Amino acid sequence: MNRESAETFLARHQEVEDEREALALRLAEVERAYQELVERLHGYERRAEIKARLEGILARIGPAR
To answer: How much is the pTM?
Structure first.
């Protein structure tokens, strides 16, 4: 390899490494966002379960007087 092609190769290699690092960071961000959404979903599911139980209890008690 001549000097110019070696420098070009190294520059491309660095660009690929930089892009790989950027993609890894972006993936980590997306994974964190996904985990937050999953946690929020579990919270909504839990609230819906509690609401359904309360509605069942209230239905058994009967209408308020």
So the answer is: 0.63
- Answer yes or no: is pLDDT of 24 > 70: yes
Which residue range(s) make up the domain with 48? 1-65
CA distance 15 to 13: 5
Q: How many structural domains are present in the chain?
A: 1
Q: 16 pLDDT exceeds 80?
A: yes
Helix, strand and coil content of the chain, in percent to the nearest 5, comes to: 90, 0, 10
Distance from C-alpha of 16 to C-alpha of 27, rounded to nearest angstrom: 16
Instruction: Give the torsion sign (CA, 9, 12, 14, 17).
Output: negative
